């Protein structure tokens, strides 16, 4: 979006500045055109740097998604709100490698965390006997330190883990 806007301004500036290099308005336009060009270059550099860091961070997991904890705890709604405020969401692994990356955070912290299962799910990793919703009070899903999924009460205080996807 930024590149489209900057490119439009650049084209407008070039068309308006054509033949007016000596008058004050033409000089101002030429200066703006140069600044827009430098900004476009800087934006490209930042995008490339960001993608390099993202690829490096996701390289070990084989996933394009990052799973991060703030080491806080909360019920499902609190975790959801925390993740949304941070620009992410509750983890929703779609592939085995993503589930492994998510589980590695849980294993490191030795804690369980909520996850969101889409319906229909593209991928599941239910533990034996799950989902069971025993007593009708287990309407959420949590993952254990091995990445196995279990039915859970939405009121449990579990580790806050958020998923971020940049691509």
Explain what the structure shows:
This protein is of the alpha+beta class and 167 residues long. The protein has helices spanning 2-17, 24-59, 76-85, 96-109; strands at residues 65-74, 113-115, 140-143, 149-152, 158-165. It is elongated. The chain has two domains: 1-60, no CATH class; 66-165, Mannose-Binding Protein A, Chain A (Roll). The mean pLDDT is 85.
Provide a compact summary of the structure.
The chain has helices at residues 2-17, 24-59, 76-85, 96-109, and strands spanning 65-74, 113-115, 140-143, 149-152, 158-165. The protein is an alpha+beta fold.
Q: What name does the CATH topology of the largest domain carry?
A: Mannose-Binding Protein A, Chain A
Mean pLDDT, rounded to whole units? Answer: 85
C-alpha geometry? elongated
Assembly state (oligomeric): single chain
Task: Note poorly predicted spans.
Answer: none
Number of domains: 2
Strand content: 15-25%
Instruction: State the secondary-structure class.
Output: alpha+beta
What is the element string, with H for helices and E for strands? Answer: HHEHHEEEE
- Share of helix, binned: 40-55%
**Which strand order does the major sheet show?**
2-3-4
CATH superfamily of the largest domain: Mannose-Binding Protein A, subunit A
Task: Report the major sheet.
Answer: 3 strands, antiparallel
For the secondary structure, the number of strands is 5
Known CATH architecture of the largest domain: Roll
**Number of H- or I-type helical stretches:** 4
Task: Give me the Rg, rounded.
Answer: 24 Å
CATH class identity of the largest domain: Alpha Beta
Q: End-to-end span in angstroms?
A: 15 Å
Organism: Pantherophis guttatus (Corn snake)
GO molecular function, one term: growth factor activity
Protein name: Phospholipase A2 inhibitor alpha-like protein
Main location: secreted
């Amino acid at each position: 979006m930024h590149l489209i806007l900057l490119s439009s301004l650049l084209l407008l500036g070039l068309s308006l500045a054509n033949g007016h290099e000596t008058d004050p308005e033409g000089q101002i336009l030429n200066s703006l055109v140069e600044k827009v060009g430098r900004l476009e270059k800087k934006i490209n550099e930042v995008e490339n740097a960001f993608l390099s860091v993202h690829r490096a961070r996701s390289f070990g997991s084989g996933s394009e998604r990052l799973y991060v904890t703030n080491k806080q705890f909360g019920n499902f709604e609190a975790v959801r709100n925390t993740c949304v405020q941070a620009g992410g969401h509750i983890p929703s692994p779609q592939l085995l490698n993503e589930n492994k990356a998510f589980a590695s955070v849980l294993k490191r912290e030795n804690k369980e965390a909520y996850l969101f299962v889409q319906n229909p799910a593209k991928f599941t990793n239910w533990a034996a006997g799950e989902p069971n919703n025993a007593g009708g009070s287990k309407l959420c899903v949590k993952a254990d330190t091995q990445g196995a999924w279990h039915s859970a009460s939405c009121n449990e205080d579990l580790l806050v883990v958020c998923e971020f996807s940049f691509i």
